[in-house]
Amino acid sequence: MSMKQNFEDVSDTVLLEEVKRRFDQKNSTLEEMEFLTKKLYLLNEKLKEHDSIKGEFLSLIKNVFNNPLSSLLNLSSMMRKNEDSPKTQTMKLLLDMELHKLDFQLNNIFTAAEIEAGEIANYWSEIDLRLIIEEAKEAFAYLIEEKELHFSSDIELDRLIVSDAKKLHTIFANLISNACEYSFPTHNVRISARIEDDHLLISIANTGDVIIKDPNKELFSRFKKVGVHASKARTSIDGLGLGLSIVNALVESLDGEVTYSSNENLTQFNLCLKLQDTSKAEALMSESANEFMFDDTQEMKEF
């Protein structure tokens, strides 16, 4: 029997009912799609509101901590310059040391939160790389003095570079912190920088405990801890912490790459950053990252 004969055998009533059934089915599908579209729209609006609140909360928390902490750091720095009894001077040094530790850890926490929220836009300015390195190194003066470490710098730059001062400060702070922490006492930490083609090449090397095997991928993963070959002076080492994942994310945001290598007791981190055009600079020059980190800090007088 042909299809034409089949249709001829079907009454008009049956055909109309079938058409109505299919039409109702189509309307039901359209209503479901409309309902789901509205749900997705409302969810998207809630996500936008959530991101906005999260950003405002993060900004508020940073100001709440950074403003008083920067004031305390300035106070402790000025207190160290005043001569006092040996006991009081020791207390001043301990205060200054603990404040710098807290400042470093809080900056890492805030930076990690900003990376998670996708709020790591670049703020380009012309900077003197030597000053950024010296400033980052100064924060760990207590550890350098305690371990009697020697720093050597080979900065082959004859001009300013365009980059993000705050990000570079955070990158160097974490790499210098690791170099100091894992160096053998009285040994050297070497920092070098040079321009090759259209890239800035930076290396930070130290002699001390080295990472086991070749965990390049795991090393830069957030919350992933890797083992190290610990010296006899150390009882235990769990890993290198959150800092290296922050370094990796910030370097990538600056159009760069960070790699790691080790040989016996030598550890070296290598950074390759793409040079930015001077037209991107938003300021004539930024000598220090502090102006970005503590904008609201009031000038304090010595007492």
From TrEMBL:
SUPFAM superfamilies: ATPase domain of HSP90 chaperone/DNA topoisomerase II/histidine kinase. Keywords: Kinase, Phosphoprotein, Transferase. Its EC number is 2.7.13.3. The keyword Oxidoreductase does not apply. Residues 60-277 form the Histidine kinase domain. InterPro entries: HATPase_C_sf, HATPase_dom, His_kinase_dom. GO terms for molecular function: protein histidine kinase activity. The keyword Methyltransferase does not apply. Pfam families: HATPase_c. It comes from the Bacteria. This is Histidine kinase.
